Amino acid sequence: MSARMFMQNLFNGLTLGGLYALIAIGYTMVYGILRLINFAHGDVFMIGTYLAFYGVTLMLLPWWLAIVVAIIGSAAIGFLIDRVAYKPLRESPRISALITAIGVSFFLESFAVVVFGGIPKSFLKIIPNFLKKIVTIGELRIQVLTFFALAIIAGLLVLLLWIVYRTKIGMAMRAISTDIPTTALMGVNTDTVIGFTFALGSALAGASGIIWAMRYPQIFPYMGFMPGLKAFIAAVFGGIGSIQGAMLGGFILGMAEIMIVGFLPQLAGYRDVFAFIILILILSFKPTGIMGKKLTVKV
Amino acid sequence: MSELKKEDFLLFLDHVTMQFGGLVAVDDFHNGVKPGELLGLIGPNGAGKTTVFNVITGIYTPTKGRVYFAGMDITGLRPHIITHLGIARTFQNIRLFHNMTVLENVLVSQHHALTNSDADRILKKHGMPVKRTGRFWFWKAILKSPGYINLEKHMVKEAEELLEKVGLLDVKNEKASALPYGMQRKLEIARALATEPKLILLDEPAAGMNPQETEELMEFIVRIRDEFKVTVLLIEHDMKVVMGICERIIVLDYGKIISEGTAAEVSSDPKVIEAYLGEWENVS
Amino acid sequence: MPMEKRLSTKTKIYLTIGLIIVGALLLWGSNYWLESYGQRILKLIAVYGVLAVSYTFVNGITGMFSLGHAGFVAVGAYVSALLTMSPMEKEMSFILEPLIWPLNSIQTDFLTATIAGGIAAAIFAFAIGYPSLRLTGDYLAIVTLGFSEIIRLIALNAQNITNGALGLKGLTEYTNIWWAWGWLLITVVVIASLTYSSYGRALKAIRDDDIAAEAMGINVFKHRLLAFVVSGFFAGIGGSLYAHLLTTIDPRPTTIGVFLTFYLLIMIVLGGLGSITGALIGAALFAILSEWLRIFESNITIGSITIKGIPGMRMVIFSTLFVVTMLVWRRGIMGMEEITWDKLYNWLLRFRKKGQTAEPEPKRGDVDE
Fold it and tell me: Mutation test of the interface with chain C: which of A30, A36, A222, A280, choosing the one with the most C Cβ atoms within 10 A?
């Protein structure tokens, strides 16, 4: 692989990793609090892209406004999913909530098939023209979109860290992930905080979906399944419950995926397999991930 | 303390230390349970009593030291093997199979005799009798061979006899979760007995019981010891239980043995009084 | 609670044999009474039954949460399909890359192919279960889901074995009423026999509390693996039946991927997690409902008005039903109970007693449970 190819892959890997990181944060925050794999998270990613798509094509919004509206819409859907499907099951066995989450995911996908149609739609017309331009740096040829995506990803990650570590609601989120009942005793409305966590995670997933669709401009009802699964793996890899871990895990996974395919193109058909192999390895040898804390069962 | 010889003990913990990161939960435990005795292990909250149980039953592998049982070194063996070798236990927070009936709960404890070839190998190595012979039970169970049907009948008969002895036969078809608290405690002990142990470990059996229930439980423990010829190691927070029935008591504080002896000896030991302070008043 | 009466074992055996004979007669009769469409549903019920019962053995009875069942179905389907196709058919299907030796030259009968499919799936179950069954709960769910996706991706990419995205088409429709219901009978008998044995009790104990089960001398890992392999075997059998019912098998997620696992999950949750009869009821309901609900997806003409059908509506209805079940009626139709001869007998007795003595209204208290 030439140096030029390598640099090209580096940029691609960074972007893909950033997109995984954005989704993974939602998984890790919810898991940290509720010990629940929010299976529907990948579908919020999908719905975010459709909201942006229809924002431009149906409601004739300018592209940037459509994106903002779609991100707010994703947050609302995340919040709603928690209220309708997960909140009634807070006191039930964890596995019931997981089964329900699978049901919700399946519902959102089949709902999308009915409402949006099962045939893939092109996202190309949503992308403003200036993003499609290509910049040449030495031998490198990179789309403006890549820089745009990286800038947005970085901005969102910083914003998230600010919310979690510098605001009151962020403090409440961190408290609640240690101990729900005690936090409730301190006078925190835990349901509000959990709802906010879902909204925040879903907003990031929606944003990730939209950038994803700009880079791979085909949207379809099942597009959230694989990125969602891989982002969850990234969250486990980074240490579930840890936000920085999810970010790191996302970047490593994205980079690894692009690089492996870059170096060994004959394995391209199996690119989705790598993530699962990583998951199985990490769970067998270091289930707490690279930055996670140990969650023990008391005997 | 005079020199202890592991041959005198049924279960012996030879300088056992259990460390979690920087925390030493059990510190150089060097003592054991003699055959046939009813030994109490007491100590303030967080003294490391349950950790001792978890080391004995194989949930944890000790950081240092060895665990010997009936002449075998059982350090680091998996819990199901240790059970098969003859140590059964109950749990502080009751852990019954709540969706199963009382009878089924007891029957489960007989299952290990069918499948535990690893444990049987250890028993054979030490020249000890293997519990139940026969092979291919899995296939026989699917095909319901006459041998399996007989075995099943035999298991049910044994389980019912055991339930009768502990006074739970009337409720054998009830779901375990439907039993009142006191009966659940009893069932947990019965379930442990059904594994045919030589040694039974009871982890705070009187927790959450009223004085009258506690009284009954004390009689019950003494009775099963005599009737089932088992050695009993009892963890208890309620001093009255331990003082009332235990022949020998080991006091643990911050993971260390601070005193050992009869109820009278232990209760007059200044070190024990110091460790317990406030809680001591409940006893006298 | 009134004393439950129990039937003797002998009576139960006679009743069971009677039921099988009556069932066989009805199935034989269906050749005359039912159109091929009705027969197709009948076969589908049996195939779904095999898959759902084997799935609930892991998820309901052993209490592991696997999302990888479709992977084993896929293995069974591909292996058996490759064995029943004739060398000529194979040569014609594999147009992009020829099938590797020796698969390209062997052909067996349907029974051998099905058993081979079951064994291959059992081997996969062992290979997957061994590294992953030390995990529990949601981690196990995600890892098994991962493995089933890997199997699907292999099916998609291993051109010279699976024919890649084209899949295997034009299989002979070997799965007739007798094969489908015969294998269902075997599946139910074996799984039920195992569930109601000492092994089954151990598995249920693991479901209720694995730490306590280990403390009672049960090798939890070994038993989990055992259940997983048995379940995998019957999933493979079901996969063979499924492939030779559809007459085609391909690596789309809806055919052998995660959607199939979802469908099976719907069946066993509706029927009641932990119940074999529940899984059968769930399978039958799913097979019938999914045919019946097609009316929402096709155009309906009433007089001069045509209502346009909405493709995909069935799955919206199923997933809604599924989520609502989880929220308000988690035990499902059967919960963890089974329909047994004893229960039917007692139910009948109560029913008759009520009729004969004409009791005005039983007191709330003694209507048991």
Answer: A280
Q: How many residues does chain B have?
A: 284
Domain residue ranges in chain B: 6-282
Domain locations along chain C: 15-255
CA distance linking residue B50 with residue B88, whole number of Å: 14
Cβ pair C68, C128 in contact under 8 A: yes
- Chain B nearest C-alpha distance from C25 (Å): 26
pLDDT band at B90 (very low <50, low <70, confident <90, very high): very high
Domain B6-282 CATH class label: alpha beta
Categorize the per-residue pLDDT at A283 as very low, low, confident or very high, splitting at 50, 70 and 90.
confident
The answer to whether A228 touches A45, Cβ cutoff 8 Å, is yes
| Contact (CB, 8 A) for B204 and B189 | no
Q: What is the pLDDT of residue B284?
A: 43
State whether residue B72 sits within 8 Å of chain C by CB: no
The pairing of strands B38-42 and B248-253 is parallel
- C218-275 tens-digit pLDDT: 999 999 999 999 999 999 999 999 999 999 999 988 888 899 999 999 999 999 999 9
ipTM reported for the complex, 2 dp: 0.90
Q: A18-39 pLDDT, tens per residue?
A: 999 999 999 999 998 998 999 9
For residue C302, what are the β-bridge partners?
A: C305
| CATH fold label, A3-285 | ABC transporter involved in vitamin B12 uptake, BtuC (1.10.3470)
Distance in Å, alpha carbon of B144 to nearest chain C alpha carbon? 7
State the average pLDDT over residues A221-228.
Answer: 93
Chain B (196-255) residues lying within 8 Å, Cβ to Cβ, of chain C: none
